[in-house]
Structure formats: C-alpha cells, structure tokens
Amino acid sequence: MGPSLDASIALAALGPFLAAALAPVVHRFAGRYAGWVLAVVPASIFIFLLGFIEPIASRRFVQASLEWVPSYGLNLSFFIDGLSLTFALTISGIGALIILYAGSYLAGHPHQGRFLGFMLAFMGAMLGLVLADNMLALFMFWELTSVTSFLLIGFDHARQAARRGAIQALVITNIGGMGLLLGVILVQQLTGTWEISGLRGLGDGMREHGLYPLVLILFLMAAFTKSAQFPLHFWLPNAMEAPTPVSAFLHSATMVQGGVYLLSRMTPFLGGTDMWTVTLVSFGGVTLIWGALGSIRQTDLKQMLAQTTIASLGLLVLLIGLGNEAAIAAVVVYFIAHALYKAGLFMVAGAIDHETGTRDITLLSGLSDKMPLTFIGAALAALSMVGLPLTLGYLGKEEMYLALADADWRSWLLLAVLVIGNALLAGVAMALAIKPFLGPLATTPKSPHEAPIAMLIGPLVLGGLGIGVAVMTDWFAHDIVVPAASTVLDVAVESHLSLALKPTSILFWLSVLTWVLGVLVFLQMAAIRTTLRRLDAAIGWTLDQGFDSVMFGLIRFSGAVTRFFHHGKLELYLVVVFAGLALAVMVPVLGMGGMDVLLPTHELGDWSAKLSWPDLRIYEWGVIALAVLGLGALLTASSRLVAILALGVQGTAVALIFLLFGAPDLAFTQFMVEILSVVILTLVMTRLRLDERDHRQFEDWARDGTLAIVCGAGVSLLLMVVLSGTLDPRMSDFFTATSVPIAHGHNIVNVILVDYRGFDTLGEISVVMAAGIAILALIRGKKKPGTLAPDVAKRQRKSALKAAK
C-alpha cells in the first residue's frame, strides 16, 4: 500500500478529531449553519469508505500503518475488512445525518459549538475503534468512547440527573475497559503480536490454552459492560439524560455497538467453545426479554427506545453466541437494520419533544396532520423494526430464525425466546408509530408544528434506506453481508437472503406468529405496563439502586480511610514515615546477611580490616566532636531556642565534613540549608515562648528515641554493606567523560542535576514552586485578627445605628 492510501485511511479514522477541535470556531462563524458545514466531514469519510466496498467484496482487506512507538515495535495500524467496513460506513453515514440534526436541534444554544465538537470526537473514537488493527490502539479508542460519552451525557451539567447518568456510564464502561486492557496484554504475551490481523489462524492454539477461560472472561467483561448486557445494562437508560442527538447516535451506531463489534472481531480467535456459546446465548437471551419488557413499562419515548436498544443488543449477542453462518449473517443484517431504524426513531422522538414540549406517549395523539413528514419517518422506521416484508428488519428476522432451524429442543427454546422478544419489540414499534400520530389531536405544552428540514432529513433518509437497501437484496448480500460474515467466521459464507414470501416455509409462519403477537402486545400494552409496574413495586429494588448503594458505600469507605490515614496529627505522620523507613532499610539488609559486615567470618573474609577507622587528622576529629557536641546539646537543651541553635551546630558540622572530604558544593548547599532552617524556625517559634522546654511523655520519648536509633543504625549498616563491596566506576566514568563534550559543563554535579537529571530537577522545582504559591495564597487570604467579613460588619453597623436611635 502506498503512503497516500495509508494517510487516507488514517485520516478517515482520525479526521473527526481534527473537526472536533475546529467545531467551536466553525460555530462562531457559521452560526446556525454550523451543522451543515461540519456534517461534510463524516459525509466525506462515508464517500471515501464506499470506494472500498468492491475490493473488500473480493475477499481482500486493506491495511495502513503509521509509526507510533518504534522503539517498542508499536505501530498505529488500521485495517479495513468486511466487518470494519460495515461498521465504519454505518458510523460515518448516520453520523453525518445526526450532526446535521444536532445543528438544528440545539440551534441558539450557547454551547452548541462545544456540543458539536464532542459529537465529532465521539464519532472519531468509534471509527478508530472499528478500524484499529493494533490492539492497544483499539483499547485507546475504546476508552475514548467512554470519555466522550461522559461529556455528552453530562452535557447539561446543571442537572443532577445528567451528572449522575454520565458518571454511571463512565464507571460501568471503564470497569470493562480495564478488563479489555488486561485481556489485550495477555493475548499479546501469549501470541507475540499486537495486531488483530496477526491473530488469524491462532484460534485453535488459544482455545486449547490453559489461560483461555481468563482471556475469554476479560473480553466478555469489556463487551458486556459496553453493550449493556444484563445485569450491567442499567447505565444505558440513564444515559437518556443526554440531548436527543447523542441518544440517536449512541444507541444506533456508536458506543453500545462497541461490545458487539468486539465479540464479532474475536469470534475466530475465542469463539466456537461451549463456554463461549453458553455464556453469550444465556446472557443475550435474558437481556433480550428483559429489555423488551422494560420498554413496555416506560411511557417516555426516549426511555422506550433505550430499553428496546438493550433488547436488540441482547439479540445480537445471542446470535454471535450461536455462531453458525445464518446467525452471523443475521448479526450483520440486524446491526444495520437496527442502526437505521433506531437512529430514525430517536430523531423522531426528539422532533416530537422539540415541537410539542413533551415525550410522554400517553399525552400524545393526532400529530400526523401537524407533523406529516415526521410521521412518515416514524412509519418507515417502525416498518423495519416490526420486520415487515421489503425491509431490512424482515431480512434480519428471517436469517435469525433460519439459524435455529435445527430439530433440537435447545434450538426450539431459543427460537421461542427470539419470537417472543421480536414480538414485544414489534408491539413497541407499533406504539411509537401509531399512538403519537393517529387519533384526535391531544393538547400539548407547545402548539405542535412540523420540525425544521435539518431535523427531518435524517428520519426520512434512514427510513427510506431501511427499505431501499432491502430491495437491492442481491447487491446487499454479495457486497455487504457476505464479506462481513466471512470475516467474523474466517471462512467463506454463502448468502441466504431473499425477499420472497414462502408460505410453505416454517420461517414464514414464524414471522406471521411474530406479527400477530406484536399486534396483541400493542393492543394490550396499557395492561401489560400496569402489571409490570406493580411487579416492580412489589420487588421494591432495582440494579440501578444497587449501583447507588455501592457508590455511596464506596464514598463512605473512602471517607473513613481518609480520616484514618489523614488525621491531621503531624507527630503520628512522622512516626509512620520513620517506622516505614526502618522496615525498608533493616529488613532487606538483615535478610541478605548484612550483620556479617560487623564480624570477621571465614566465608566473607576479614571485614574488620575493611571497616577500620580511617587515619583522621586532628581537625577532622574536631569536626566529628563538634557534631557529637551538637547532638548532645540538642538532646539536653533547656529551651526551644537552645534546641534550634544546637540543631544548627550539628548541621554545620555535617557541612564541614562535606567540605573536608572534597564536596564543596554539597557543603555550600548544607550551609545554606542550615542558615535558612535556623532563621525560619526561629521566626516561626517567635509565635511561641522560646524560653520554655517541651515536656514529653516517657512513652513518646521512648518510641521516638527507638525509631531514631533504629533508623540511624539501619542507614549506617546499609552504607557499611555498600562500602564493603567493590566500587563499580562505570557510571562515574561516564559522567566524567561526557560532562564536558556533551553538556559543556566542568562541574559534574551541576551537569548531572541540570542535564542528565533535568526532568527530575524540573519536577522538584515545580513542586517547590507550587508549595510556595499555595503558602502565598494562604498568607494573603488570611484575615487580620479582629477583622470581620464585609457583610458581617455591615449588619453590625446597622444594628448599632438602630440601637442608637
């Protein structure tokens, strides 16, 4: 592949981030047309990706790679095959329409530019996820979807519900993200490659490996949290606190589909085992029924759609678990069908809310005359959601029923789950398309009228595509479904798609049964909703409430831990620090036979000769005597002032030792530290009585004295062990040889601090600077003794005047 194509694929994955950075500027200059301008970016990506349909349909895949961390052999690599192309086309195509929709939906909002930037970054994260070949890059984009969704769900941050929904989504999906990171690292260690394309053909070895269950659990944890599988589904309905364009994008082509993509991508590598099949089919089936029933229980249009998304995600996971050709083909078809009709229905719900002031389905009726184009968009989307002929939903339903055509009781059980789940979803689709639009016109908070054209293009185009693509069955099957399904199964797959109605086929009668049950659900929806709400009230507890309990418990536990370790008692802090120092120094040294340096042994030689006192001159003995004298004066000081001065005497003695043994720079530093220490301590202690002596309890004196002796002995013993060995001069020789030619400095210590340890020194300076700024702020912000706050002083003056009168 040439560098231009490499750059083009990388730009398709990373381009939305560039547009996101420019979105506020575009909004400032384009105003209400910002959505139209920014929609050009995803539309261009969609058109660019369309050019890959033909080569990918010929069972080829395209790779692109950019250097990322060459020293570790990491490349920012992307690849396009049938699966990634299907997802990328869906993301970019729907994304263009939703950016256009968002520009009109939030027209006049003061932060619309920021919102559009977040949306484009969200799109970029999802495009990067599905196009990434490097598994670390996949993880990076995976986490970016969580971060950007957090920003979007909590966009209206003034509302507590929005903040809670954003935090909940971030916490749950990040738990899965940590599982994905561990799984990716473990796979790399087992296979030796970071590239997903490099895992081809390694599935048998992985499935037979002893760590296969652990790898599978980690990837399932990531997929189940992202794609809201029961019992980790509860964050998704709360994400409805986001503006409607976010919901339309998040539920159709981004975020929640990340888990579906991950499971599909890992099927050749991890799929095909009993553990894989049983887990995915079980959790997927439960999630399907749970979400479908949950949608009937709701009356808010967005909440109804959110619950149906949970059900659809469960359906996709179930089909991936089945893993046969028909099931995987159904995954591809249903993913596209669901993305088209779910995005369209969310846009319809947003338009109804935008123009009527309510989303409560029980308060809506008769809008077809006032909002005819919105009604058409809702009807087209609902047809595909019900699964009627000539729609993509119908093709997907036929394929999933075909996947369970075996005469086996397990297949019949799963078939019953699918029929019931699809019937419940069909009933909800009928309610969404019929109840708000037909019947007498209801009174709403706002006088209803048709939505702006930018908010109508999306529902009409997506609803039309749900029918138009299905009509082109042969092209759709050959160029889209077969390449994607073949990629998932890593074998050539044949197409079974057909729009023909075959009354002699059991699949046809299963579809008829689904439609009949769907009509019954629609007619009895109010009664079913009442029953479900009574059941909820009888249970009295939800997983959502359980999350709150866990979070509140975690906060209380964190507070208790903080109060225990950060009690504000400086004396105890120092005791803990020096006790840790004593353990850190003494335990390893004693464990390695460090006491042997004190005694001559046969094995270690005559250590006493090595540790003999050096031949000191009289003035050197004098400096040591001065240090001892300072120590004694400090311990026996009669007052605080004497203790401060004695501490300075001992520090001065240490500085003289540095000076006498050839370290004048250290001596100078030590002198400066001692002078500043004595001055600062004296100034601080002026607020206390310097002529007093601090009385200490015996137990405190014994504790601190013991710690001091142990720490001093431990450090001395460690130095003895180090000095008793042979000096390795390679590091010092390196500094000596390179300080002048490389760093142009003759003072080796300065060169080490400024050049070789430059970032370390910069960090130390930054810490000191931050501490100084904080101290300055505290000093400047402290009120003078006796002064009152302005409002308090004003009230007191008023009271005094009133009393005088």
Automatic annotation (TrEMBL):
Domain MrpA C-terminal/MbhE: 702-781
Highest taxon listed in the record's lineage: Bacteria
Gene Ontology biological process terms from the UniProt entry: monoatomic ion transport
Protein name from the UniProt record: Monovalent cation/H+ antiporter subunit A
PANTHER family assigned: NA(+)/H(+) ANTIPORTER SUBUNIT (PTHR43373), NA(+)_H(+) ANTIPORTER SUBUNIT A (PTHR43373:SF1)
Top-level taxonomy: Bacteria, Pseudomonadati, Pseudomonadota, Alphaproteobacteria, Hyphomicrobiales
Annotated NADH-Ubiquinone oxidoreductase (complex I) chain 5 N-terminal domain residues: 71-115
A Pfam family per the record: MbhE
UniProt KW keywords: Antiport, Cell membrane, Ion transport, Membrane, Transmembrane, Transmembrane helix, Transport
Spans through the membrane: 6-26, 33-53, 73-103, 115-132, 167-190, 210-232, 275-293, 373-392, 412-433, 453-473, 506-528, 572-598, 618-635, 642-661, 667-686, 707-727, 761-779
MrpA C-terminal/MbhD domain: residues covered: 626-689
Localization: Cell membrane; Membrane
NADH:quinone oxidoreductase/Mrp antiporter transmembrane domain span: 132-415
NCBIfam families per the UniProt record, alphabetical: PRK12647.1
Organism this protein belongs to: Devosia limi DSM 17137
Membrane topology label: Multi-pass membrane protein
One GO location term (cellular component): plasma membrane
